[in-house]
Amino acid sequence: MNTPAITTPVQRAIGSYVQPVDWDDFISFLQAAANDALPMVVYTDETRTIPVYAGVAQRIHVTASSVSIINSCSEFHLQQGTISNIQLVQKPTAYGLVTSIALWDAQENVIALFLSSRKPDKYTSCKWRVLIEKHLSP
User: Fold this and answer.
1) Dihedral of the CA atoms 92, 97, 101, 104 (nearest 10)?
2) Which of 26, 28, 29, 94 gives a 20 to 30 Å CA spacing to 103?
3) Three-class SS of residue 132?
4) 104-110 own/partner pairs: CB under 8 Å, 24+ apart
5) Which segments within 2-131 are labelled E, that is strand?
């Protein structure tokens, strides 16, 4: 009897709704979002209860090993070495696809979820979708 291979949550999610993203494309997306004054929300847990960053990034500061997202009220820092996987996640809803960017560590814990700043039960902004397609879609 063949026992099916055990897969991790990240491996099970890869498919039509999840696409891998590389670091440089992620940085390019963040810089374009800042240039276009695109509001975003960042959560550090899957329950999306309390955002750790919200608003328009006024500046994206990139070093060889990190990125900082900065506005007048808050800052959010990511160390590249802690991120093992970046994915573009498209979740179907009654209001179309809600697209987020998920960052995972080596143990497949969520480090951060980036979403378009939007009201519940509303469509994702057109600007967000256009930037996703331009910088992160294959």
Assistant:
1) 10
2) 94
3) helix
4) 104/10, 108/8, 108/9, 108/10, 110/44, 110/45, 110/46
5) 18-20, 39-43, 51-56, 59-62, 66-70, 75-79, 85-93, 96-104, 110-116
Spatial separation of the C-alpha atoms in residues 80 and 112, rounded to whole Å: 12
Q: Residue 111 and residue 83: Cα distance in Å, rounded?
A: 8
d(CA 124, CA 89): 13
* Structure confidence by residue, pLDDT tens digits, 42-101: 888 766 667 788 888 889 999 988 899 998 888 888 999 999 999 999 888 887 778 889
Q: Count CB neighbours of 80 within 10 A.
A: 14
Kindly report each contact of residues 130-134 with a partner whose C-beta sits within 8 Å and lies 24 or more positions away, as own/partner.
131/29, 131/32, 131/33, 131/36, 131/38, 132/29, 132/88, 132/99, 134/32
Angle between helices 126-135 and 23-35 (to 10 degrees): 140
